[in-house]
Task: inverse folding
């Protein structure tokens, strides 16, 4: 049996995965479906798992109206990630796995504040950590937050779940002839301006040699293969 190559992993879930068919709103069936797969992987592989959730199904700061303050809009987006985090935590714990939700700014009635050493201790105790509110500051995406937390928590790999099979030259849902990339360097991803993650996230990962695998959420059950070194989706390294 192949050994697990990556022991501590950060899973980035875009908010649209929790929405209805158009990626908007909240679909509790999606939370339950993803939670079941997360628990299965956690039990099967015994990895230390960090999850970062986006909030795009509820609100994105960059989608604000022109007359709305950008800082206020970004904080609204961060609050949206907390709503998703609470729903995911509820689903995962109801199905039997221990979790801790941590926020980048204090919302003490619903979650712990993010403290790096405490987060590491939770991981060592086998708890799944759900991180919300991005980095707690405006102008940074949840992808940048995921890269930062993965580096801080000494993760071995970032897994980014999307609605497509990996990284393409264009949106494959708009252009079926878009080129699929099985492997990319950080510099290629930045130079080609591929929108799967922002430049800040790619730069952070490059500077700290943090590999990223971008894959389809429908293949979440195949994570154990990725953890053993098999390429599913796109590897950015």
Result:
């Amino acid at each position: 049996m192949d050994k697990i190559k990556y022991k501590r992993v950060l899973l980035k879930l875009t908010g649209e995965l929790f929405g209805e068919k158009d990626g908007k709103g909240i679909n509790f069936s999606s939370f339950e479906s993803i939670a079941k797969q997360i628990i299965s992987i956690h039990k099967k592989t015994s990895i230390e798992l960090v999850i970062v959730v986006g909030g795009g199904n509820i609100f994105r700061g960059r989608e604000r109206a022109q007359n709305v303050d950008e800082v206020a809009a970004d904080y609204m987006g961060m609050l949206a990630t907390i709503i998703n985090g609470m729903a995911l935590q509820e689903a995962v714990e109801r199905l039997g796995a221990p979790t801790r939700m941590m926020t980048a700014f204090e919302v003490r009635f619903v979650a712990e504040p993010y403290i790096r050493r405490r987060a590491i201790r939770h991981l060592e105790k086998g708890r799944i950590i759900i991180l919300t509110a991005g980095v707690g500051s405006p102008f940074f995406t949840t992808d940048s937050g995921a890269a930062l937390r993965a580096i801080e928590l000494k993760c071995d790999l970032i897994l980014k779940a999307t609605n497509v099979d990996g990284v393409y030259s264009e949106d494959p849902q708009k252009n079926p002839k878009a080129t699929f990339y099985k492997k990319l360097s950080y510099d290629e991803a930045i130079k080609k301006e591929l929108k799967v993650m922002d430049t800040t996230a790619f730069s952070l990962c490059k500077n700290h040699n943090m590999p990223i695998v971008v894959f389809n959420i429908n293949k979440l059950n195949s994570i154990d293969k990725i953890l053993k070194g098999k390429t599913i989706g796109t590897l950015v390294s």
In short: The longest helix spans residues 70-94. The longest strand covers residues 8-13.
